[in-house]
Amino acid sequence: MADQTFDMIVIGAGPGGYVAAIRGAQLGLKVACVEREHLGGICLNWGCIPTKALLRSAEVFHLMERAKDFGLSAEKFGYDLDAVVKRSRGVAKQLTNGIGHLFKKNKVTTIMGEAKLAGKGKVTVKTEKGTEELSAKAIVVATGARARELPGLEGDGKRVWTYKTALVPPHMPKKLLVIGSGAIGIEFASFYNTLGAETTVVEVLDRVLPVEDAEISAFAKKQFTKQGMRILEKSMVKQLDRSDDKVVAHIETGGKVEKVEFDTVISAVGIVGNVENLGLEELGVKIDRTHVVTDEYCRTGVDGLYAIGDIAGAPWLAHKASHEGVMVAELIAGKNAHPIKPGSIAGCTYCQPQVASVGLTEAKAKEEGYEVKVGRFPFIGNGKAIALGEPEGMIKTIFDAKTGELLGAHMVGAEVTELIQGYVVGKTLETTEAELMETVFPHPTLSEMMHESVLDAYGRVIHM
Ligand SMILES: Cc1cc2nc3c(=O)[nH]c(=O)nc-3n(C[C@H](O)[C@H](O)[C@H](O)COP(=O)(O)OP(=O)(O)OC[C@H]3O[C@@H](n4cnc5c(N)ncnc54)[C@H](O)[C@@H]3O)c2cc1C
User: Fold this and answer.
1) Cβ burial, residue 72 (10 Å; 0-12/13-18/19+)
2) What distance in Å separates the CA atoms of residue 184 and residue 202, rounded to the nearest whole number?
3) Does some domain include residue 67?
C-alpha cells in the first residue's frame, strides 16, 4: 500500500473540500481527499449546477412562449421532461468528471470511501476493499449538508419530494405544493410553474425569499403571482395525508386550516449538517444545531482540525465553501490567510425573475443604527432591458449616509445574478458612493442600472 501519511486530508469533495484540496496541492502540500459518493458534492451533483441546467430549459421555454414579442414565430413547441432532466444530469456529469481531472493534474490523492476521524491527525476510511488508515498534520472536514426533513413532511420519492427527487422527477406535477420559499424552494417553484404545473408556495415567515430586502421580496412576489403561482405567506403546512395518486395538505393561515389537494409536494424547509458518525464529539468538537462551531479561520478548537462549507454553518452557499477551502489550505501551508468577510458574500436565486443581493438589507442597516441613503432604479428605465424584452425589475442600493460606504445592494430582474459581482467587488474594496459614481459603465448594458441606482441615492439619477 502507498504511504498513507499526508500534510492535509480533506473529508468531502464538494466545492469546499475539492477546492481546499487543489489549493493545498498548488502550495506544495501532499493532499488526500476522501469522498464517499461523488466528486463535486451536492453542488455539482444535486444542487447549484443541475438546478441551473433545469432552469435554463424553463427559461428557453418561456422565451419560446413569448416568441411573438420578438417578431418570431414558434409554433407547436413543447417539452420532453425526460430530455430536460437528461440534459441536467449530463451537465452535472461533465462537471464532476472535471473534478477528477483537476485532482489528477494537481496530484491530489483521491480515496473513495466513508471517512471517520480516529483521533488527532488520524482518519480511517471504509472503502470497497476494506479499511484504510491515513494520517496528516491537518484535517479539513467538508462533509456538507442534506435536506432537513420535518416530521410528517418527509420525502417519500413518490408524491412528496426533497430536492434530490425534484431534480430527477418520477412525473411532471400537475398541481404542485412547494413548502418553503428560500432559494431552493423558489427555484423549483419557478421551474415547474414555467413548465405548466399549477403551483402553490407556502412560507411560514411573513414574505417569500425572507432573507432578501423586503422591497425585493414584494417585487418578486408580484411577478410570481402574475405568472400564476399562489403564494401563501405566514402560513404553515401542518399535515400531509398521502395516498397513491395525491396528497392532501392541511395549510394553516391566520388560525384557519385549509385542506388542499395536490399531486406533488416539494419540501424545501432548509438543510442540516452532515455531522454524524464522523468522530467529532469524541475529539471534543463543539456542535451547535447540526453545525460545527468554528472561528473565523474555520478552526474547530482541536489542534489541526478545520471545518468548512455547509457543515460549518450559514450561509449555505458553494462560493462561501470554496472561499473557506482556499483560506484553510493557505493557513495550513503557512501563508497569510484572509478570513472571509460575511457581508461580502452574495446570495443568488435563479428563479424568474432572478434575485441577487449582497450586504445589509435596508431594515437590517437601520436596525444596526445606520442612517441610510437609499437609491432605486427600475429596469423600465434602461435601454438594454427594454431591448432584451425584460422591463420588469429593480436595483436598490443602500449607503451609510455619514461615510458613503456601500452597505448593501439588492436586485431583482433579468441576469441580476451575473450583475451582483460588481457590487461584491465594491464591497470587498470598501467602496463609497463617490467611487461608484466616478465609475464609467458600458452602454448599453444592464449594468448601467447599477450606476443609476447609486446616482438615485444621491439625487443625481439621469434616466428617471
Ligand atoms: C437544490 C440545491 C440548489 C443549490 N443551488 C445553489 C446555488 O445556486 N448556489 C450556491 O452557492 N449554492 C447552492 N446550493 C448550496 C450548495 O450546494 C452548498 O452550499 C455546497 O454544496 C456546500 O459545499 P460543501 O463542500 O460544504 O458540501 P457538499 O457539496 O455537500 O459536499 C460534501 C461532500 O462530502 C461527502 N461526505 C459526507 N460525509 C462524508 C464522509 N464521512 N466521508 C467521505 N465523504 C463524505 C458527501 O458525499 C459530499 O460529496 C444549492 C443546494 C441545493 C440542495
Assistant:
1) exposed
2) 13
3) yes
Length of the chain: 464
Verify that 81 and 221 share a domain, yes or no. no
User: Which residues form the domain of 251?
Assistant: 160-269
Q: Which residues line ligand 1 (CB under 6 A)?
A: 11-17, 34-38, 41-43, 46-48, 51, 114-115, 142-145, 163, 184, 274, 278, 309-310, 316-319, 321
Final residue in a domain of this structure, among 316, 342, 368: 342
| Residue 440 and residue 410 share a domain | yes
For residue 259 the three cell numbers come to 385542506
Question: Is the predicted pLDDT of residue 87 greater than 90, yes or no?
Answer: yes
155 belongs to a structural domain: no
AA letter at 429: L
Average pLDDT, stretch 417-439?
97
pLDDT tens by residue, 214-254: 999 999 999 999 999 999 999 999 999 999 999 999 999 99
Which of 310, 342, 374 represents a domain boundary (last residue)?
A: 342
**DSSP reduced 3-state for 375:** strand
217 annotated ligand binder: no
Q: For residue 227, is it within any domain?
A: yes
Count of helices and strands (H, E) across the chain: 13, 24
Beta bridge partners of 249: 240, 260
Longest dimension (CA), the chain: 70
**pLDDT of 342:** 81
Same domain, 118 and 95: yes
Does some domain include residue 154? no
- The per-residue pLDDT for range 269-319, each reduced to its tens digit, is 999 999 999 999 999 999 999 999 999 999 999 999 999 999 999 999 999
Cβ 176 vs Cβ 262: under 8 Å? yes
Closest atom of ligand 1 to 188 CA is 1
- Residue 231 has φ and ψ, to the nearest 5°, of -115, 120
